[in-house]
Structures are given as structure tokens and as C-alpha cells.
Specification:
The chain is of the alpha+beta class and 438 residues long. Helices cover 19% and strands 37% of the residues. The chain has 6 helices and 23 strands. The chain has helices at 2-22, 27-58, 66-73, 167-174, 271-278, 408-415; strands spanning 78-85, 88-90, 100-112, 121-132, 137-150, 159-162, 184-190, 195-199, 210-216, 218-225, 228-242, 247-252, 257-262, 266-269, 297-298, 302-303, 306-307, 322-324, 332-339, 345-353, 359-360, 381-390, 426-436. The strands form 5 sheets. Strands 6, 7, 8, 9, 10, 11, 12, 13 and 14 form a 9-stranded antiparallel beta sheet that branches. Strands 1, 2, 3, 4 and 5 form a 5-stranded antiparallel beta sheet that branches. β19 (332-339) and β20 form a beta hairpin. α1 (2-22) packs antiparallel against α2 (27-58). The radius of gyration is 34 Å and the shape is flat. The two termini are 59 Å apart.
Length: 438
Amino acid sequence: MRKRNIKKYAASVCMVLALTLAGCSGTEEAASTVAATEARVNENNTTEATEEAVEETAKFSAGISDDAAISAVASDSISEITVTGHNVEETPGCEFGEMYVAKDTVSITYSAGNPTGLLPQTVSKDCEFYFNKDSSDWELKQDTLTSCDVYNEPLQGSNWKVENLSADILSKLFGDEIPADDTGELYIHFNKKVGLFAFNLKNEKNTSTERFFTCNGTGKMTWVGAAGNVEKSFNLVDGSVTDAGDVNMTLKTDIDTASLDFGIDVLLIPEYEYDAALGNEVEEGKVYIEALPTFEVTSTSIEGGDWKQYLGYRYENKSPELTWESYEGASKYMILMIDKYAANWLHWCELVDASEETHFDEGKFSGTDQGYIGPYPEDPHAYDVYIIALADDPAKTSFKMDTTGGDINSKLNDLNFAADGSTGNVLAIGSIRAGYIP
């Protein structure tokens, strides 16, 4: 402001001086001199204004820094935040006020935290940061969900116990089929084809921290009461997840629907606990993976949480390095690599003598003829490698490769039968998981 006042004062002086000097030459010459002087002053003022505008634009033209954007959206419930893109544009007359002169739409991806460990999520948003010219700060004004992927494999074939069951929910699910004065507990079993399958982007209930999904699948619920067990089938009809890790699912019976908070009011339980509670008869040879002793498995073929890319089928198709603890009493080890994301696709199946192997070098198996078919997903998947300690040769020494098939539980049940027909062949299990990015 001060510079502009000095300029105006100088311009006035110049004009007076010009008129005085021009008086000697006549009116036309005086007017010409004044016009020339005004032009020079206007040019100077325009140059200064342009420089100031350029300087002001430079403050926001590069957009908000990645670190600042990540800091603005960070919270205790989300992690692994990454910035995948910027789009900076000027916003004269912005709806938030005239002081906001630019907008940077920042594409951000993060993992939603989950204290229960259930249904880990990868969320993407477009966050709109506005530049405040008065404070020279970027401010987060709003965000828009663009995608959400949920790893829902833990739901499939899972068993649950309802901890905090209200009389209202029990009535909605069972009606009057349970005596009013009965006491007991409610158990839930999901069938294997169940899950939160599709993020419903257009659902009007979506918020910046809660996301709704299109659900599919069936299951059964069993009231284990003093008067006896009451069983009812249900459909999974709705579901949502939040940044804080809340997992809400709506179950529909032939009576009504009820929404339950899985992981909080409904707790995941081992299969053997579920069978014991319901009094289920355990079939011969059945193995409960949760009850098996475990041993450690490590691999140098994992970098940053992912299997090295060249292990994949479309690259060098090399098996990963594995090292595991020797388990006492084992005569054989069965190695399996399973892609649960692809309906338990089997990529590796190898039976080895315990006396010879507790370590594989990377690339020991490098072709389909050697029982290894490396990952080749179109999108990032997770791959589990299991090492199963066996007391003796199993009756089933291999499984069909490069195809969907039974999950690890069904394979354990097969391996639990020894070649002589006896059961109890599975002694312990070790496992390691890593992602694979094509």
C-alpha cells in the first residue's frame, strides 16, 4: 500500500512538472507530455500488480505438499497413507469464501485401522484442500469416497458368538420361537460363500468414515438355550465398515432383520468352540486348525510385506525361500501356497522328508513340472504358504494344482489320514503370508 501511494504522489509531481515545462510549447505539446507520463506510470503500476499476482500464484500453484496432505488426514484409525495424485485449479468466488483462491484435489489411499483385526480395508478418497490467501495455508474442506476394497475372507465359513444380545434383537430374529423366560447364548455360522462383496459408491448413507457394501451369502444361527437348541437360517443383506474398525452386518430371517456389530458385540470363535457349544458330533479325522501347535516360518523372499515380483508365473516363476523350525515327531512336511482371494487357488504343493528339509533356497522349485506355479493375479492378492508337519506319509500325497479348491481346513482333514488309514497324522502347522503386486 505504501508503494502505491508513493507512486501516485510521484505521478502527480511528474504531471505538474510536465505541464509546467509544456507551457512553453503550447497546449497540444502539454497534453502529449501528460499522456506519455500517465502511460509510463500506468505501465509501472501494471508491472507491479502483475509481479504481485505472479508471486501470489506461486504460493499455491504447486498444490499442497504430500507430507502436509498426509498429516491433515492422519488419525489413529488409519495407516499406510499414500498420495496418488494432485489436481490444482484456481477457484475465484469459492463457496467457502473469497479468501480461498485455489483448490488442490488430492487422491489419497490408506488402510483403515481395525482393532478387532477383522476385514482389513484399503480406502481411496479425493480430498479437497483450499488455499487461504489470508493465512497462506491449505485447508481440508471436504472429501469424496472413490473406492474401498475389503478383505472379507475371514467371514467365509466362520463361527461367531453374540456377547451382548438384546431381547429386541432376539425377538426380531426368532420371533416367539424361543420361550420368553429362556436363558442361553446365540451362535452364528456363515457359509463359505459369504462376504461384503461390492462397495456401494452411490449409497446415500456413505460418509467420509463409513462405507456401505452390497452383501451376499447365507448362514445359520443357533440359540443354545436351557430349553434346547433353536436353529434358523438367514441371509446377509447389508453391511458397512468404518475407519475405526466397526463392522456392521444386517441379517434377515423369515421373521425380521437385525443389525449386529461384528468384532464388538459378536466375537469370532474357533470352530472347535462352536462345535462344542452346539454339541456337534465331530467327524472322524477332522482337524481344528486353531487347536494345532504352531511353529515359525520365515522367508527372505518377502520385501515390504510382498512376495518378490520375479517369483510370479509371468516372470521367473521361482519358488520363495523358506526356513522353518523342525517339529519333533514329524517325518514329512507338506508345503502349500494358497490364494484365498481367488477361492483358494492352489499355487504350490510339495511333500518333503523331514529328515532332509527345513529350508528351501529361493528358486529350488522353478516350474510347473516341479509343483510350483507362481502368482499371476490381475490385482494385488495375498498368498499364504503353509508348512504342515505330518507324523507319517499321508494317504493323499498331492492336490490338484493351478485351480480353485478346498480351503486349508479341508486339506488338513485330508492330510490327517495316514497311508495306513489311521487318523491323527497332522501334528502341527506353520504359515507365512505376503501380498503380491502384479
